[in-house]
Automatic annotation (TrEMBL):
Keywords: Lyase. This is Amidohydrolase. The keyword Membrane does not apply. GO terms for molecular function: carboxy-lyase activity; hydrolase activity. The keyword Lyase applies. Residues 70-274 form the Amidohydrolase-related domain. InterPro entries: ACMSD, Amidohydro-rel, Metal_Hydrolase. It holds the Pfam family Amidohydro_2. CDD domains: metallo-dependent_hydrolases. SUPFAM superfamilies: Metallo-dependent hydrolases (SSF51556).
Length: 284
């Protein structure tokens, strides 16, 4: 059985914007070497990893062309990587939103990400009572029509210019109701403030999946004591590239050492992510 790390920020120097070093994160990101990443993956039997290449003008200076550059760079290793794209719907015109979704889809993304806390937009801002942001409605509708998952960040962010008032996972409830065939991946399970809300949403909404990246594996059962109850629709990820995550290999080893059943570990770190995300080699 091979594993999947379904949430990483493995961003290579060759794919980043020229002004990335002058970003507004307050975090010193050091791009890894791809050979070292592949070696680590082989050490712990990772079949592939998912790279989140989302646009964030405020934090990282990345835009909607970012996933295209990542995909092009990874073509020689297409069976080992999956790439997630995305748009900042509140920073694009309707025409631009449609264009970038099409371009990313045609390039081979296996899903999209919305980062409300970094983009400063409520996940349900498409609704009339929330401002009726049509670009966001198009985003969800496109993903649903093309059977692509949408990852939505929940929980707080430590980066400069992050707006944590958008961190509450309860906003995803509207999306689950309005787009019933859309696979919604709730990144980080609302940690640390909203875990109970996140857990309940995974339980009651059939199209909301939990995702445990950035929660230290050794503390995972403190955050989610009833984790095994939702393991059938929960996804493992490390959030490597983010603060405090030492390596993709160490994070996976710590997860596999948890006192939970082997069935739950297999569901979260292999079966479920392989069901949700496809490697680039399956999409070209």
């Amino acid at each position: 059985m091979g594993y999947v790390d379904a949430h990483t920020h493995v961003w290579f120097k060759e794919t980043l914007p020229e002004d990335f070093s002058n970003n507004n994160s307050g975090y010193d990101y050091n791009p890894p070497d791809i050979k070292e990443i592949l070696r680590e993956m082989d050490e712990v039997n990772l079949d592939y990893i998912v790279i989140i290449a989302y646009p964030s003008r405020e934090i990282w200076r990345t835009k909607e062309d970012f996933p295209l550059r990542v995909i092009e760079y990874l073509k020689p290793y297409s069976e080992r990587f999956s790439v997630i794209g995305g748009i900042e719907p509140n920073k694009l015109s309707l025409q631009e939103a449609k264009m970038w979704l099409e371009r990313q889809y045609e390039a081979g993304v296996s899903g999209f990400k919305l980062h409300p806390v970094h983009s400063h937009v409520k996940p349900n801002a498409y609704r009339e009572e929330e401002g009726e942001l049509k670009q966001l409605e198009i985003f969800y509708q496109f993903a649903q029509d093309h059977e692509l998952p949408v990852i939505i960040h929940t929980g707080t962010s430590v980066f400069l210019k992050a707006r944590n008032k958008y961190a509450d996972p309860i906003y995803l409830d509207d999306i689950a109701v309005d787009f019933p065939n859309l696979k919604i991946i709730m990144a980080h399970m609302g940690r640390p403030n909203y875990v109970s809300t996140a857990f309940q949403l995974v339980r009651i909404r059939k199209n909301i999946y939990g995702e445990i990246s950035s929660i230290p594996p050794k503390r995972l059962l403190e955050y989610i004591p009833r984790l095994e109850e939702i393991s059938y629709k929960t996804i493992y990820g490390s959030d490597y590239g983010g603060p405090g995550i030492k390596s993709i290999s160490e994070n996976l080893r710590n997860f596999l050492s948890l006192n939970i059943s082997n069935k739950a570990k297999e569901e979260m770190a292999s079966k479920n992510p392989k069901f949700i995300y496809k490697p680039l080699s399956d999409l070209f």
